[in-house]
Amino acid sequence: VKKLVYGDKRLTMADLLDLVGREMHLGSSLTAAFLHSHHAFPLLAEHIGPIAQSCERGVSLSDALRTSEATPTSTMMPPSIKFGTRALWAATTGSSGALALERAAATLRERTAIQYERRAQSAQARLSVKILTWLPVAFLGWQFITNPLARWFLLASPTGWALLVGGLGLNWYGRRWMNRVVEQTR
Fold first, then answer.
1. Which residue among 2, 25, 38, 46 is least packed, with the fewest CB closer than 10 Å?
2. For residue range 55-74, what is the model confidence (pLDDT) as tens digits?
3. What's the rounded Cα separation, in Å, for the pair 47 and 24?
């Protein structure tokens, strides 16, 4: 089996589910298809490897998946991997397991596409956050360097200090607020 390396675990998990489904369409059992396919995805080895090792020792796939869900490391598992292992678990219960795996893979791909689309849609807002928070700081620096009257006002008077601290504080708060809003798109 040729090793496939991708940078996105969601798409890699979708490809694993597709490959297992394809192997099942070719006549393999679910466990045999999983054991034959998992080697091709080294990016998933950390999460899928222990399940495959249990199956190689003779444990059924459903029992190996149930055991992996009970381990403490399952809480650290990325949601896409958890979704994929649950799809494998669901495939052990019925006769149309290959179809269930293919649909789960399609769902993972759709989720990934939606996430990338949201990220692309929020690119302008992320850029605006950077520009709108650094531009006033750059302008302040330019004023300090080129304008002695502004420098004297901001550093020598209590009103200047209040404006300086208030402006920088509001700038910092606005950046945090916008980052929190934009971060939800990831």
1. 2
2. 899 888 888 888 887 777 66
3. 22
